[in-house]
Amino acid sequence: YQWLRNDIPIPSASGPTFTIPSTAMSDQAVYKVAVTNSVTPDAVVSNQVPLHITTDLSNIVITSNFNGQAAPTNTTVTLTANVTGTSPSFQWRKNGTNISGATNNILSINTGAVVNTANPDLYDVLISNAAVPDGILSPFFSLRVATPVSGVNVTRSPSAAAVPTNTDVVFSVSAVGTDLAYQWIKGDADIPNATGSSYTLNGVTDANAGNYSVRVSNLVTPGGVISNVVALAVMDPVNTVNITLANPGSTTVSALASLTFTVTVSGGGDYTYQWRKNGINIPDATGSILNITAEGTPGTTNYDIVVFNPATPSGVASPPIAITIDPPST
Predict the structure, then answer these.
(1) How many Cβ atoms from other residues are within 10 Å of residue 150's Cβ?
(2) Which positions ≥6 away from 21 have C-beta within 8 Å?
(3) Cis-peptide, bond into residue 16, ω within 30° of zero
(4) Mean pLDDT calculated for residue range 165-191
(5) What is the rounded CA–CA span in Å between residue 124 and residue 116?
(6) What pLDDT, on the 0 to 100 scale, is given for residue 175?
(7) Which residue, 147, 206, 240, 295, shows the most beta carbons closer than 10 Å to its own?
(8) Is 225 within 8 Å of 213 (Cβ atoms)?
(9) Global pTM?
(10) How distant, in Å, are the alpha carbons of 15, 136, 286, 287, 303 from that of 276?
(11) What is the per-residue pLDDT for 9?
């Protein structure tokens, strides 16, 4: 006898049987035997027998095409069965029941509109091949479904451009999503322990001034969505306002006399001004000095000013100065 592998004689394989003690992928081939005797010296060659080597199944892992710990609602996700082994077959299951027609290594799933984080559906796959005909069941994949983060918006109370020192300030966030988590940010740095849906500063000082935002995350959006930036300026409010008649020296004047008023302000800074006559705004009279012509008829006119700053958006009015027009001489 002479055994042949792919038509090549196998050394020392000269018995009526040929045994491969432990097969390997390199043993995959076509085998036959040539038989001779004293009457048939030219040998008779047997039929060919192919040997196919099949490896066991191992390293079974299910992966998904989404990054978070949950899939978004109303979208299609895929689960992929990864396995080491020869010619595997697949049967996907949902909560222990075979899914009809789900016999590829990739399973597509429409998540639908229902949020399901507390009791997720469990997917697994039975993988088999010629070496493991009964199959091996993969570990479960828990498919949680949740609404992703969106619509993140921050507001501040009080909402004035600047707030007075020692004021309590509250930042609040509104957002859409399932099981939201929050991290408040000042500038580019996370604020320690600021992880609620609002962030409060009690009795603000200049040190609290800056830009504030919040990062909102959940199982679907683990990297989070960062909100709009809300600035906080801290400034003392306007305290007192007084005006002086700089010219002329008397509040009793002749008709059409030239008048000059000045203003003195305490508290805060970054002022804006609005002069008034008898409680009505004087157009374009928005400087710290008012030059105006007195009335042309006898009577009394009251002049005052309202001073604003970012911490005093409603303004503070000065006491008025009454200007009396002398009647003409007779």
Answers:
(1) 11
(2) none
(3) no
(4) 97
(5) 18
(6) 98
(7) 147
(8) no
(9) 0.69
(10) 123, 88, 10, 12, 6
(11) 95
